[in-house]
Amino acid sequence: MSSLLLLLAATRCSDEAPAAPREGAPREAAKPESATPQAATARLCDVTDDGPPWPVEPPPFDGEKFTWMRDALGAWRHDSSASPRYRMQEIITGGVALLDVDGDGDQDLFCNTGGAWPDAPPPATASQHALFRNDGGWRFTEIAAAAGVTLPAGGYAIGATAADFDGDGDDDLYVTGDRRSWLYRNDGVAEGAGGKVPRFVECAADLGVDAPGLLASSAAFLDGDRDGRLDLYVVGYVAFTDERNDRLRCGESTVGMLDYCSPKDFPGTQDRYFRQGEDGRFREMAREAGLIVPEPLAGNGKGLGVVACDVDDDGDVDLYVANDGCPNLLFVNDGAGRFAEKGMVRGCALSSDGRSQAGMGTDAGDFDGDGDVDLVVTNLDLETNALYRNDGAGFFEDDVRAAGLAAQDDGSVGFGALFLDVDHDGDLDLAIANGHVLRHVHRTRGTLTCWQHDQLFENDGRGRYRLLAPPEAGAFFLTRNVARGLAAGDLDGDGDLDLVLVRRDDGPVLLRNTHAERSGAADALLLTLVGAAGNRDAIGAVARLTVGGATQLRLVKGGGSYASASDRRLHFALPAAARDAKLHVRWPDGSEADLGPVEAGFAWRATQGRALEKLGPLTAR
What we know:
Blueprint: H1 37-42, E1 66-68, E2 96-99, E3 108-111, E4 130-134, E5 140-142, H2 144-147, E6 157-163, E7 172-177, E8 182-192, E9 195-202, H3 204-207, E10 216-222, E11 231-236, H4 242-248, H5 252-255, E12 272-276, E13 282-284, H6 286-289, E14 303-309, E15 318-323, E16 329-333, E17 339-341, H7 343-346, E18 362-365, E19 374-377, E20 386-390, E21 396-398, E22 414-420, E23 429-434, E24 452-453, E25 455-459, E26 465-467, H8 470-473, E27 480-481, E28 483-489, E29 498-503, E30 509-513, H9 515-519, E31 524-530, E32 542-547, E33 550-555, E34 558-559, E35 570-573, E36 582-586, E37 592-595, E38 602-607, E39 613-617
Parallel strand pairs: 31-38
Antiparallel strand pairs: 1-30, 2-3, 3-4, 4-5, 6-7, 7-8, 8-9, 10-11, 11-12, 12-13, 14-15, 14-34, 15-16, 16-17, 18-19, 19-20, 20-21, 22-23, 23-25, 24-27, 25-26, 28-29, 29-30, 31-35, 32-33, 32-36, 36-37, 38-39
């Protein structure tokens, strides 16, 4: 997400501190704008008098893979509080978390707002989060205030993640923010608002995970030391200050008007690692655990994305961090909770031509079907995204060109990124949420605009990707957006994976996967893993389903995408007629189990140390 000053990033970030800012007057106030929704969105991008360049309601296509459920979430809109001071927080806010808040077995969704700066132009309203309870049939009820999931006065939120951190059987929520973050503990449900309403209690400061002073972007829960309790990794971005931002007056020398600064203009920050103790409180232990961002922070530590999973297949959870304009970081776990940074040595820190890139979102999965964990990172418009192929020994090569992604990069700025099997053919397709960070980008980049098309790539089964045109992907992909967070999950219970995107200063997008409807076949299963002790979510587990000589690898991950959390249930393609499917699970503590038999068309639950349970058929609700 580098600015115009950083079109070509160096192989390593500069070891010098940022140059002294130019002196100048504070930023001028913005001209008054209309309070209409279109004008509020238009603050994001420099547009013509004709308004935002997208179809308002493109009609659906016959046979499209995703159908846009336009009215399912009502009128709620994300609010970045876009200000005349062009604060960097505004261009990174917007996350989504899928979680089951009321214990009814389906996926509810949380969308965070940004906040409300005191100097923001109209319409600067009381910006609040949204918690949508899933009532079935693509009906949702917004219950954030009733549930106690509210943004405190003066707070500014960036993203979200979710897990059962206290091991009591319900999903909790962590919201990252500017100079402090929030942990909402789920204390059970009561009847209200036309159904069950959870009661959340904000307890970040009490438990030691509020991360004061940190501009936190993404976060991931994990059991780093395999003690059965979930720890928390929080990614820090830059040490932003209004004072320095005002003096820099970014954009004036290049486009003749103010725009957002580059991360190069601010020092980086040290990420936080909170280890949970026996009393349920957390202690910051990044240094003790070896999770130290390389010095100097003037040119390192500008993190935006994180994913926690077993990258090297040795039975413990590793961490991968996508950094903006600096080498990405791979923290390899030694099995006892001590990490060593190996990104440069293992080949997943830089691009294929040896350059640092503007890493934002990241995900992990076996995209080439060879049985090991690969990585994807989204980057800036004048770069390509990165696709790191694992050689089977834990070393990586950026395969973005060989996989066909580089040739299909249309100058997009990627944030959310997810591996998922859209069409139930057993391989991992790829979804990317796009949207530029500069308001006036078209003045220097020709045809590029702030609003951009989101992308859906189809895997050919051999690890090569094809960008799907809107008639195949869906009418939504005709539109251009400033998208940030992206999550996947089965929202309607029919066995295929739907998508949720959060757009900056706009409404969230629900995309219904139409595979189950179009195919009419029961050709997948969903698997919930329940771990022992405190890590009931089994974060760090690895499951393999083998059928017909082919094996699908799926991971229970912490974090992933950008500032978001997806459905933790594992999704496997499985032909309805298959009778030889074999399921193998390696649990987070390193123990292993062969489970089965399994059949397609059902949801299953595997609890560590118990027999596999069939929960019920996968049918749309």
